[in-house]
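Entry type: protein chain
Record version: 2
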Amino acid sequence: MKQPKISQGMIKALRKKLVEAMPKLIIYECLLMYLTNSPRLYNLLTTAAKLGPSIECPTPYEISKVCLEDEYKIMQSWINELKPTWKESGVTIMCDGWTNSINHMHIMNFFVYCSKGMVILKSIDASNVASKNVDYYLKLLDKVMEKVREEYVIQVVIDNETTLKFSSLKLMKKSLSLLVFIWICAWKILRKDLHLKPKRLLRAKSFGIKAINIIKAFVPIVKVLKLLDGDEISNQR
């Protein structure tokens, strides 16, 4: 049996009802406005329309316990699919701290970035840490490096906190693979050319020569770009 066609007038009337209902959910439940652009919301609406009004919404318990556990497993599976890429082309570890100006809660987030995507590796509440010194940050970075596997890490990107800077310098001295931090712009070209894994690439005799040649090629380009941007025009005059 064919479904009756819906006229344009009826579509407008139905959409008006949706437009009236949606803001009430977002405003009174304190949700973000751009939720309306989410493909997940569209998926929810289409699924609900297919099932009909007789199917009840999931309970808070189902969402917080059952569904959350399922989503966690799906996310872990996706991260495991990324890990072969970590081994193949290396990763960037990014560290960023954030302090709440009201309650002074200090959160540190560690991200792992590779060519196929970025994941939050871990988030640490450092609010109650009495001394956030160089050794403290060094231990954190060490644990992250160990979790990812040191040989996969090409570079570590940090924020401007002075203590964290000194910690990263200590980490660079401790880990040979982090010397690639200096040559990061040339990394893909070098690895593709030499067909070596991160640590072997660093020990290759031709690595330094090729890296220097690439940097020599980049320096004039950077100077020209700065001139075009006006960064050095005043100095040239």
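Comment: The chain has two domains: 8-57, 63-229.
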